[in-house]
Structures are given as C-alpha cells and as structure tokens.
Design a protein that fits this description.
Blueprint lengths: L2 H7 L4 H11 L4 H15 L4 E5 L4 E3 L6 E9 L14 H4 L4 H9 L1 E9 L8 H11 L5 E11 L14 E9 L7 H8 L5 H10 L4 H9 L14 H20 L8 E8 L2 E8 L4 E8 L13 E7 L12 H18 L4 E8 L10 H8 L17 E3 L2 H9 L6 H7 L1 H4 L9
Parallel strand pairs: 4-6, 9-11
Antiparallel strand pairs: 1-5, 2-3, 3-4, 5-6, 7-8, 7-12, 8-11, 9-10
Pfam family, one: Nre_C
Function: Involved in DNA damage repair.
Family: Belongs to the Nre family.
Length: 426
C-alpha cells in the first residue's frame, strides 16, 4: 500500500476522539482505593492474609544492597490472581490506564527488608517469595502482617504500578509450587551465567514478563552471584539481553527490500515505525507533550532519543531509558519472524492523554502489535504497512503527522540528521 494511502486511511476525527477520551478518563482511582481498603479489612484474618499470590513479585532498589522485597497478593480472594500479573494479555484485552491502575491497586504488596545475596536462601520470607516467582501458576500463601497497610499508589515509568503496602512478618507456603522443568534446569546449573539462562528461557517459550520475574527473584546466574534484582532493573536487563540475542540471529540476514511505515497507538502513545533497507541500525525518538505529567513546565514538546549502529550499544541508555530496550525488542522480534534485518526509526509521541505512568510494558506491546493487528485502526489497515520510495520520503510524510517539525527532528535524531536538508524543510 502506498504510504500516502496508508496515512490517509487512519486519519482520525480529533473532536470525536477528544470526546471519547474525556468520557474514559474519570480519575476514579481514589474511590477505587477506598474499595480496596474495605475489601482488605474483610479479607484479613486477624493480622494475617491468606490466599493466592499473583505470579509476580516486587523488589525495590532504594538502599541497595538492602532492599524492600515483596509478595503481591490480590486483596479480593474471589478474583483470578493471574489477571493482576503484568503481561501482553493486557494489550490483547484492551486495558486502558485506569483498568491497569485498578488491577494493580487491588494487589497488596506484603514486604520486608532483605539482603540481595540469596544464593542458597529458600526458607523464610525471601525463600517463599522466590518460590512464588519461579512457579508457573499462583500459589496459596499465608502472610503475617504488622501494622496498617499504606494505601498510596506508587507509579513508575518502567515498572508496573504497585498499590497498598504492608510490612510482612512472615510468609508460608500452603502448597507446593509447580516449577517448569526449564526453570529447574537453570537453577540446577550453578555455572550458567544469567544472560545465557535468560535467552534459554525465552527460546523455551517464556515471555520476557516471566523471565523478568524469575531474574528479579535471584533465580538466574552463577550460584555465587545469584541476587535479588530490583524490578526496575530486571525489566530493562531482560529486554536488553533478549534484544541482543535476537539481533545476533539476524546479523547475517538479508535486508528488507523496501521502506515500510508501520503505525500503532495505545494509551495515549502513538508509534510510527520506519523500516528501511540496510544493515541493522536502531533509534528511538520520544516527543513528550507540553503541560503533561511528562513535560509539565514545557511550552513545546520535549524530545529525547537514543541510537545504536550495527555493533549495538556499549553503554546504558539514559534519555529514553527502559522505553528504548522495550521498543527495540518489539522491532527485533518482528525482524526475526521475517528473517530480515533493517534500519529502524521508532517515533513515539507521548500525548497528554497518557495521564499516568503504567510501566514500560505498554511501549513493548505498542510496538510489538504494530506489526500484528493494532487496535483502533480500520480493518483495511490492520497488520499492514505503508510503502515509501525512500527513507527520506517516509520521514517527510510521517513528520506531517507529528507535533514537531522536520528541522526539530533532525536536530535530535542521528538517523534523520543524515538526510540532506532542502528549502522545503524550513
């Protein structure tokens, strides 16, 4: 499909979209927290909480190497714990920002301080937490609590939000967890480096969400080096490691033979993905709306970017942080699927409709699904791309849909900066 036809196909009714967003954006989280508090009072048995945990844990980073380590349990015991765990299924189910916040505030984070060195720790609170993390289904756990839970909502641009927190005195398994054989294999091999174990699990069909939880629990890596990994760090580590593995699989592949433009939007984020022939190169450019939670004092869009060439990166991305590795993963998974390599520019417009951070998972799923069946696009465009005559043609056409000029984009983007300017750009 020609690029101009592709772009014309999803031009939106801005007025209708604003009305729809106004109806959806109720900000009723405060009321929901009150409901959670009431449900917790009804569920507590004295100073203990009994029920199934979500197959997910949380490890903080403050005070490292002594961190806050927690088990996540649904407050309402009649609900399916797996519905609360971060996964790509949230995108498939069409969850919005408020849906995610409500699910996460429905999880009690029963936590206590722990040392990160956990090589042989499989008893006590931390041992129970690790058993929960390596299981492939929810586990019944009894948790002793000390004091009144704190019902503040904690949000993060990388980690999924967490809800009420309470200090745990102990945690005891009420059943034996079921641990998949590939996970047992990684635990049994004390000489297996964490990077190799991560890619092994991914090859065995574990999504990055599962691998992240297992890594965070200190269940991967050489025995003497196994440590709890703060959730924020483990998310990026898995995206980066799996991304490097996928890149290795296409290093010698043929390149695509045309310039393609893919599009998706999710939770107030708009993604333009330009693939063009050539050896692997990747860049993410983010444009954050003024007077939004991401750019509250700005009068113009705030631009951030990060880039890598064929050889990859040798340093951590600062400006775009976890979004870089998450979006790169989504692109690489697509290229591996078609057994091709390409130069890739991802343009992420963060509008003020993205009114609360829900974690970097939504970036990963937004990019992943641009190549599948994006929500909100006409059926004639789903799973399709626009074909441009060249990388320059693609950038020029897409820029007309962006809130920044081609000149501003050229100043920030290494890939766009390489295009020769013409008078029409100014």
């Amino acid at each position: 499909m020609r690029l101009d036809d592709y772009i014309e196909g999803f031009e939106r009714d801005e007025a209708a979209e604003k009305r729809r967003l106004a109806e959806e954006k109720s900000y009723a989280i405060t009321d929901h927290l009150e409901d959670v508090e009431r449900q917790l009072e009804e569920t507590l048995q004295g100073d203990a909480l009994f029920g199934s945990t979500a197959p997910e844990i949380f490890v903080g980073r403050s005070g490292y190497p002594n961190v806050s380590s927690g088990v996540l349990s649904p407050v309402a015991d009649e609900q399916d714990p797996t519905d609360f765990a971060t996964s790509g299924q949230w995108y498939a189910n069409g969850l919005g920002i408020e849906d995610v916040l409500q699910r996460r505030t429905g999880l009690l984070n029963s936590q206590r301080s722990a040392k990160v060195d956990v090589n042989d720790v499989w008893d006590g609170f931390v041992g129970t937490q690790r058993e929960v993390a390596i299981a492939d289904r929810p586990v019944d756990v009894e948790i002793g609590l000390d004091g009144t839970p704190d019902f503040d909502l904690t949000t993060d641009d990388i980690s999924t939000p967490t809800g009420p927190r309470a200090r745990a005195t102990e945690a005891t398994l009420a059943e034996n967890p079921h641990v998949p054989r590939p996970v047992e294999k990684t635990l049994e091999d004390d000489d297996w480096r964490a990077e190799g174990a991560m890619t092994y699990l991914y090859r065995k069909g574990f999504d990055v969400y599962d691998v992240n939880t297992i890594l965070s629990a200190g269940a991967l890596g050489q025995g003497r080096n196994r440590r709890l990994v703060p959730t924020r760090w483990s998310i990026t580590a898995v995206d980066d490691t799996v991304g490097q593995y996928l890149h290795g699989g296409i290093r010698n592949a043929n390149t695509i033979d045309e310039t393609q433009v893919w599009y998706n939007e999710y939770m107030g984020n708009r993604y333009w993905i330009i693939l063009t022939p050539g050896d692997w190169e990747f860049e993410l450019v983010e444009m954050k709306a003024p007077e939004s939670v991401w750019n509250p004092l700005g009068e113009t869009h705030y631009l951030a970017s990060a880039h890598e060439g064929y050889g990859g990166r040798s340093s951590y991305v600062e400006e775009t942080a976890g979004a870089y590795y998450a979006s790169r993963l989504g692109v690489l998974e697509h290229l591996v699927d078609i057994d091709r390599q390409a130069k890739c520019l991802v343009l992420r417009e963060v509008t003020d409709d993205y009114w609360a951070p829900v974690g970097v998972w939504q970036v990963r799923e937004g990019v992943r699904n641009a190549f599948e069946d994006p929500e909100g696009l006409p059926d004639t465009l789903s799973g399709r791309y626009g074909e441009a005559g060249s990388f320059r043609d693609a950038v020029t056409s897409v820029t007309e849909q962006l809130p920044v000029s081609l000149t501003a984009l050229r100043r920030k983007s290494e890939m766009v900066a390489g295009l020769q300017a013409t008078l029409s750009d100014f």
